[in-house]
Amino acid sequence: MVHTSPYPTPLFFFLLIVSLVALSEGWSVYIRNDLKSDLLTILCKSEDNHLGMQVLNYERELNFPIEAMSPTTFTCTMDWNGRLHKLDVFNSKRDGKVGRDLKWSIQNDRPCLLNSSTNKYDLCNYSYN
Ligand SMILES: *[C@@H]1O[C@H](CO)[C@@H](O)[C@H](O)[C@H]1NC(C)=O
Ligand SMILES: *[C@@H]1O[C@H](CO)[C@@H](O)[C@H](O)[C@H]1NC(C)=O
Q1: What is the block-wise mean pLDDT of the chain (129 residues), using blocks of 10 residues?
Q2: Ligand 2 centroid – CA 124 distance (Å)
Q3: Which CATH number does the domain housing residue 75 bear?
Q4: Taking burial as the number of CB atoms within 10 A of a residue's CB, which of 12, 58, 74, 85 is the most buried?
Q5: What total number of domains does the chain contain?
Q6: Keywords in UniProt for this one (predicted)?
Q7: Is there an atom of ligand 1 within 6 Å of 117 CB?
Q8: 7 in a structural domain
């Protein structure tokens, strides 16, 4: 027998919670050392979050999640070849629509993002500060 209730069913609440959790999942940031011959020393932080310093060998990648409940920017300070390079790896204004993964390739002259359609790091219109 089909019973139609005027009240939301437990299933409705279950589905609502599942979709809210999915919406708040946030982004994943990947940062890959493509510097060929250099170690990449990297320190990333946001207004209220601080990831420890890490050292990446060539072709190694670091990954961290971002749950952006409020507008935020994650900036990484990177050191190679005796010089500092800064990059906003995540900016909720800039990246709010990009999707759930931001995959950076750190190269000498500029950083590039992975284009998921081509599966290549061909989005290179970025620069270090
Ligand atoms: C990714 O590459 C495809 C195919 O070349 C291109 O059409 C698309 O605009 C690129 N994505 C972005 C975000 O530029
Ligand atoms: C590259 O980025 C700059 C500034 O963000 C923008 O003005 C310019 O149109 C972009 N060039 C291309 C080819 O997307």
Answers
A1: 66 60 73 92 92 94 86 93 94 81 96 95 96
A2: 10
A3: 2.60.40
A4: 74
A5: 1
A6: Secreted, Self-incompatibility, Signal
A7: yes
A8: no
